[in-house]
Design goal:
Elements: E1 13-19, H1 25-43, H2 46-49, E2 54-62, H3 69-72, E3 76-79, H4 90-93, H5 96-102, E4 106-108, E5 114-116, H6 117-123, E6 128-134, E7 143-145, E8 155-159, H7 165-175, H8 193-201, E9 207-208, E10 216-217, E11 234-235, E12 237-238, E13 262-266, E14 269-275, H9 302-318
Parallel strand pairs: 1-2, 1-6, 2-3, 6-8, 12-13
Antiparallel strand pairs: 4-5, 7-8, 9-14, 10-11, 13-14
Length: 333
């Protein structure tokens, strides 16, 4: 593994993986390698993954004497005098104040520059994503901590059960510009309805519509390039039987769709917004047992796949990769 590159690159997404509750570095490194391998398999983009848009920074939270072998694997070490937490209770696993202190530690780049993890998260929130990685446990679900008043950064905590690489992959896709595709009850939407509509319109995986009861043509829309059949074809907009209640249903068979299907709902809204498939990894929700992320492999919808493919290739070119190759997304059931 190459040394961790912590430099601020305009065209890179940097994944910071911080161990929480691991008793030794070998277990953490094993989970890190599994994540790295599975992400490459899921994205199927070997020739650009290592050198282009994505960079992994594993950090083992060291509670005993420093072991120099970690540096050979590109794992940064942060010394912490406290004991490793073996608790599976979520509140005791993560203490934000202790975490904040821990992240004040500096890590080195290839060029020898020092930057604290916290400063990277604050100054480059779209380029640096923080994941707290715990050993396998069935006691709690993954959790996303959004910044509160007086806090400058958020993080995602996840155990390494199941397809936990999908949590990382979904966060990467969101940082690259894709929107959440789930629906929420109206009383859970914090923003105004109008602002939500404006926000949905700027994302590649959602389209605004006025009347869902009439078939629409996608010609001239942001999804026109994905039309594999007649570009002037009109599509009916689908919705689940309990609409306009939020749709938390999951298809009985998970598959990567070959044709666009228009489904109403996205970015928390249940109406006036459509997505390109009933289900998608961007529709699944962190910490929601009704729309689980780690239970099964979940494909991207066509709109998300198409956007990510073009975005990854664009970043590859901007990062001076001469022969960027992207073979698409792979799903195995």
């Amino acid at each position: 593994m190459p040394p961790a590159d912590t430099t601020s690159s305009l065209y890179k997404t940097n994944i910071i993986l911080l161990s929480v509750g691991y008793s030794n570095y070998k277990s953490f490194f094993k989970d890190y390698l599994r994540l790295f391998r599975n992400l490459k398999f899921f994205l199927a983009a070997d020739s650009i993954f290592d050198n282009s848009f994505l960079n992994c920074i594993p950090i083992f939270n060291q509670f005993e004497s420093t072991n120099s072998i970690l540096t050979e694997y590109g794992i940064s070490i942060i010394n912490n005098p406290g004991p490793a937490s073996n608790s599976t209770d979520f509140e005791s696993v993560v203490d934000f104040k202790k975490l904040e202190t821990l992240l004040d530690a500096n890590i080195l780049s290839d060029q020898g520059d020092k930057s604290s993890i916290k400063s990277l998260l604050i100054n480059h929130p779209e380029q640096y994503l923080l994941f707290l990685i715990t050993p396998k446990t069935n006691t709690f679900l993954e959790f996303e901590h959004l910044p509160k008043a007086g806090e400058d950064f958020g993080y995602i905590l996840t155990p390494t059960n199941g397809y936990w690489e999908q949590i990382v992959l979904r966060s990467i896709a969101r940082s690259m510009g894709l929107a959440d595709e789930h629906e929420l009850p109206e009383d859970q939407i914090e923003d105004t309805y109008f602002n939500r509509l404006l926000n949905a319109d700027v994302h590649a995986n959602l389209i605004l519509v006025n009347n869902i009861h009439e078939p629409i043509s996608l010609k001239g829309s942001k999804w026109e390039k994905m039309l594999f059949s007649n570009p002037t074809q009109e599509y009916n907009i689908k919705s689940h039987p309990l609409h306009p209640n939020p749709d938390n249903t999951i298809p009985s068979f998970l598959y990567a769709p070959e044709e666009i299907e228009l489904w109403e709902g996205g970015l928390g809204l249940t109406k006036n917004v459509i997505r390109s498939s009933h289900d998608c990894l961007m529709r699944r929700q962190i910490g929601d047992p009704n729309l689980p992320i780690r239970d099964f492999k979940v494909p991207f919808c066509l709109a998300c796949e198409n956007y990510l493919r073009s975005r990854v290739l664009e970043l590859g070119r901007k990062n001076n990769i001469n022969q960027a190759e992207f073979r698409g997304f792979i799903l195995t059931i």
